[in-house]
Design a protein that fits this description.
2 helices, mainly beta, four-stranded mixed sheet
């Protein structure tokens, strides 16, 4: 199953052109709580946290921000219930023969999270062909 959805990806203006030209590349992303993939969110406020060139976490700087709306083929996702910083690909399915297509962290209790709770739904893909940058959105805070 393709299970394609539109999701948000926060970035900085100077990175957006490269993303549109060459695509999203998980190899150049900061590794997050769910491994070395490309991160997307269903809520723009989560992706907004990664749009400031001056700060590495969410801020309210008064400057122009950039966000990408991407088409993401989530496929058959693994719904994680714990942090997995070591992930380099989705985990194996129960039968061990195939991998899940992506990782999804839903809102709620999350084992290993520094607060024990996941505030926003996040989607992580480990194959760059699963995401297509459809729109660049620029806005000011």
């Amino acid at each position: 199953a393709v299970n394609e959805v539109f999701l948000f990806h926060g970035t900085m203006y100077d990175h957006a052109d490269g993303i549109v030209t060459t695509g999203l590349d998980h190899r150049v992303n900061r590794h997050g709580m769910y491994g070395a993939g490309t991160y997307f969110a269903s809520q723009s406020c989560k992706s907004h946290q990664y749009t400031c060139a001056k700060h590495t976490t969410g801020c309210s700087c008064s400057r122009q921000r950039t966000m990408i709306v991407a088409r993401v083929a989530v496929g058959d996702p693994y719904y994680t219930q714990k942090i997995g910083k070591e992930l380099k690909r989705p985990p194996r399915k129960d039968n061990g023969q195939r991998l899940y297509d992506s990782v999804v962290a839903n809102i709620g209790r999350m084992n290993g999270h520094h607060r024990g709770y996941q505030d926003h739904q996040e989607f992580i893909v480990f194959n760059d062909t699963q995401a297509y940058p459809s729109f660049i959105v620029q806005y000011e805070v």
